[in-house]
Amino acid sequence: MIFIQVSMHKPQLLVIGNGMAGSRFVAELCARGGAEKYAITVFGEERGGAYNRILLSDVLNGSKTAQSIETHSPDWYAARGIGLVSGAKIVRVNPQTREVETDRGETHFYDELVFATGSRAAIPPIAGLHDADGARKSGVFVMRTLEDCERIASFATKARRAAVLGGGLLGLEAARGLVQHGAKVHLVHRSAVLMSAQLDQIASQMLQRDVEKMGITVHLSKNTREIVGQNGVEALRFSDETLLPCDMIVIATGISPNVELAREAGLPVETAILVDDELRVQEGIWAIGECAQHRGQTYGLVAPAWDQARVLAQNLCGQSAKYEGTKTATKLKVMGVELSAMGTPVEQDGDEVIEYREARRGKYKKIIIRDGKIAGAILLGDTQKSASLQGFFERQTPLPPERETLLFNIGKNAGGDAKNLPDDATVCNCNAVTAGRVRACIKEGGDLKSIMTVTRAGTGCGGCKSVLKEFLDA
Predict the structure, then answer these.
(1) Domain check: are 239 and 268 in the same one?
(2) Which of the pair, 264 or 427, is modelled with greater confidence?
């Protein structure tokens, strides 16, 4: 067994996971002088640096390259004196001796250990998923990594009919990516509502029309029972006994937190690794991102991971901070359609509902107001008001009596919302860019291109570009 010690002069800080949460945490830590305080080593199972997993569908459809979605290259870590161990898996954690072991037989000692192990694709129990040797059947894929995208793209060029299981965000994006490879694409969803966690029936129907215009066939309320085929994929069999012939399947039915390593180490685990308000698991051990469970809640969106990365970086740099949870809001482009959703789309008795619908142009706006505050909102096809709505939603502040100003730039808001947004309001969810940061960039003479380069706003799903232009106009 090989024992490695990086430095005897600084406390050893090890980060397990170089995904979006882990890499963001390291960046937040460095911004607060953490690289001077700690000897930092990051372990990533994938080779190379960190990348924006949100943009995997763009890599699949060919609009972006793997290199273009990289957020932290190996050189970025080296320039800050951070050890990056890529292509290595941590197989054991010993909290008693404060050491971890890799699959290469190396042992690393730690003073502080951060779990940022993320999640993996949740695969439902479907008959015929595996071949005679117990391996996943040829033609069955998940989409979680760059390597997954490469495999899917390679196989799709030979497929005539492809099925995507799951009508959530990942499933929709996988279907969009597959269309570009020539296969006839079918999207299969158990629910009667696409993106059921974010959308209501009306928004789902409007989104479905846009999806079908791209040549994708949508099958709702379909429960997949079996993958038919001896050596590969031939068809899907549903619980109603109907068949859907296909050559390949991409499973996008949710995620499962990666908690096995923590459980084997004797750490507290329920759905995910239990953390307190400081994101501490126990003395010297912390957890953030999709593998962390805080106050009974786990998150599968990027914004909570950004919040947790910032709070943990503050705590490890001696700046006391607490994580109070994240009010989930999503702003993105789904199948090329702009969407902003926050809170719950489900109405309750006594709720006030503000709604605008323009089906011909694919525009739908809805706000659910409960006790004078936003409980949920959907903006489909026009997300201009998303930044101000998100501000009201996150802070749970009282709403203006002129409800129409919440949906349109009229009256006092005729010039748009940019001038009224507080500096800490989130403008770009993909990269956690605030209004204050955008304003600072503009004051330094930044145009749209430089704002995107410096802050990375607009370089994720692209849904916030219209808001950035509004800031420039203001």
Answers:
(1) no
(2) 264
| 468 φ/ψ angles, rounded to the nearest 5 degrees | -60, -40
Residue 322 phi/psi, 5-degree rounding, is -125, 145
Helix (H) or strand (E) holding 54: none
431 pLDDT above the threshold of 90: no
Domain match, 13 and 104 both: yes
Same domain for 364 and 347, yes or no, is yes
Residues 345 and 282 in one domain: no
| Amino acid 415: pLDDT | 57
- Residue 105 CB neighbour total at 10 angstroms: 10
> What's the Cα-to-Cα distance from 291 to each of 21, 125, 221, 256, rounded to whole Å?
10, 22, 30, 8
Q: Is 205 helix (H, G, I), strand (E, B) or coil?
A: helix
Strand partners, 43: 16, 85
Tell me the percentage of the chain whose pLDDT exceeds 90: 73
What are residue 14's DSSP bridge partners? 41, 113
- Model confidence at 106, pLDDT cuts 50, 70, 90, reads very high
Q: Strand, coil or helix: what is 8? A: coil
Q: Mind listing the pLDDT tens digit for each residue in 265-311?
A: 999 999 999 999 999 999 999 999 999 999 999 999 898 999 999 99
- Per-position DSSP letters for 105-172, written without gaps between them: SEEEE-SEEEE---EEE-----BT-B-TTSSBPBTEEE-SSHHHHHHHHHHHTT-SEEEEE--SHHHH
Please check whether residues 309 and 340 belong to one and the same domain: no
Q: What gap in Å lies between CA 422 and CA 408, rounded to an integer?
A: 19
pLDDT band for 328, please (50, 70, 90 cuts).
Answer: confident
Q: Do 350 and 337 sit in the same domain of this protein?
A: yes
Residues 6+ apart with CB under 8 A from 299: 290, 305, 326, 328
Mean pLDDT of 242-251: 98
Q: Which helix (H) or strand (E) holds 207?
A: helix 201-213
> What would the two tokens of residue 5 be?
């010690």
Which residues are 256's β-sheet partners? 120
Q: Same structural domain for residues 247 and 271?
A: no
**Burial letters for 430-446: b for 16+ Cβ neighbours within 10 Å, e otherwise?**
bbbbbbebbbebbeeeb
In a domain? residue 451:
yes
Does residue 288 sit in the same domain as residue 401? no
pLDDT per position as a tens digit, 410-419:
766 655 667 7
User: Tens of pLDDT along 386-430?
Assistant: 888 998 998 899 999 999 999 998 766 655 667 777 888 788 877
In a domain? residue 135: no
**Domain range spanning residue 198?**
140-253
Token pair of 219 as six digits:
């099958």
Calculate mean pLDDT across residues 137-158: 95
